[in-house]
What we know:
There is one protein chain. The protein is mainly β. 10% of the residues lie in helices and 39% in strands. The protein contains 6 helices and 43 strands. Strands 27, 31, 32, 34, 39, 40, 41 and 43 form an 8-stranded antiparallel β-sheet that branches. Strands 15, 17, 18, 20, 21, 22 and 25 form a 7-stranded mixed β-sheet that branches. A hairpin with a 4-residue loop joins strand 10 (164-173) and strand 11. It starts with a helix and ends with a helix.
Amino acid sequence: MKKFIKVIKQIAFAAVVLCIALSSCSKMNDLHNEYLEGEIIYAAKVDSVGVRSGKYRAILDLTINSQRIETIRIYWNDYADSTDIAINSRVGKFSVPLNNLDERDYVFYLVSFDKFGNKSLPFEVSGTVYGDRMQNGLTNRAVTIVVADDGSATITWGSVPENSLYTDVAYTDVYGNSHLVRISNDETSMPSTDLLSIDSVRTVFLPGANVLDTLYPAWKTNPAITESLPFRGPHIFSASVPCEIDVKDFDFGGEGLAFHDSNTSNDPGGSYRTDNGDPDGAAADVESGGNIGYTSAGEWLVFTVEVQDAGVYEADVYLSVNDGNGGAFSISADGVKSEKTVVPNNGDWSAWRWAFETYPELKSTQPKFNLSAGKHKIRFSYESGGFNLMALKFTNTNGKTPSITPFASWSFEDPSDLAKADVNDGVQGIPLGLFGNITAVEGPSPTNKAARIDAGGDNYLKVFHGMLPAGATYVSNWTMMIVFRMPEMDGWHTILQTDITPAGDADFFVRTEGTIGVGALSYLGPALEAGQWYRLIISRKNDFIKSYVNGVQYHNYANASNARFNLLEAFLVSQDEDGEDKTIDIAEIAVWKQPLSTTQIALIETEQQGK
């Protein structure tokens, strides 16, 4: 009986243990119930994901090798935002753009789905999206020196900022055109022609190797300059011709770099400097006649020059003294200063004269500088006030024979081909356009020929001068020579028309009474006569027009109408819209790419007389 009771107790204990075990299994099954209902199948994951960061955007580059993926869902912002990408069982590389993202760091989760709706475990990848906050924290590369160099600009930069690609430079040329050029980190020069001013700079950055978009700070206007810049220059010194510098064309840079004026106001109220892109130069007192006035002792002007031919250059000064004590000045080159020169009083503010040419007794103090080839800085210093200053002239004294070779010319030496251009410096010029009745006639001498252009608006020459710089629409600095004769003084004779449409009005005439010019410049004498040959030279430098007839100056005028004397790709000879173009003979036409000085024009006159 006891043994039976013992067995009963053992059975009861086993039952209790079994119940406990069954109860525990039930709870465990509750925890994993969904997995115990059937086998779980996961969709394939992407094999790799790369993130390319951009400005307010990113691109995810996916690599997929499994054909079991139908759709990929990309989550970000802690699964708050998502987008679905259809894969359709394809394999390969896929790029997924994500736009309109905020600027910050991101974690992207990629979950794949197969065609049965099975999903993968998430694939996690991080990346950064850039925006204005980072861009505004970037710093433009410093420009420490900007120097124009014979039509281009040489730049000395500060250190290269980390992750910078290049620097954009915005500048203005002498024609008023705006340009944008891209300078790489290792470049030291800026390609340009006729540079007038550097307006602003901006450095462009790429923050990393896989970044989509470049970033850049705001444009830096009026970049820092540590030395003066050439204004309408640099002025060229050569052995062939003297260099005349209009003093109103002193350097850019403003007070303390390009000039010093003891009075910061613009006393004459002139606008030449501001009209030509230099708001910091007005205080130097450029008057309407082109001279600098209101001068005082201690003031100075700086000019950047380019010496093409090394040698000794002597200076002369075009001035007018109106002070009983005379006018005193000195000149320095690269800091080497000449002796002080005192020019006698001539009792007028506009009795212009070359100091050392007019007063030989001053020769002992004439400034002379031995200059190497390359760039130099010339400083004119006022040792006293009491005089107006118009120009400086520098002449090479090495004894070379001056020669003025035109850029292009036409001499009508072949009666069978009156359109034929000459060869200058080994370059064949562009043939003339001949319109209407043009015939060959005898020229100024037995060895010269000429072309006769009959009266009337249908008869004229079109001169394709070839001086137009690349990218420019007109030329505002030039010189031309036209050798002409009027067979009869039977009315007005047209010399030049800059408007290349035959319906336009001409710009330079000889009137019936023989005076020469145009209304905008005035008509001047001495009067020209029928049957005589004349050499007319017209030179334009920025806003100033000068004319010479057989070496005698007729006009020296600050042209109020810029556009009228801008040269397009061509100009017309003996054409006018309303019949003011009587028969005229033309023996030679020549053009130069720069305004020639009075001294250079005198040299041309000497050469022409020797023909």
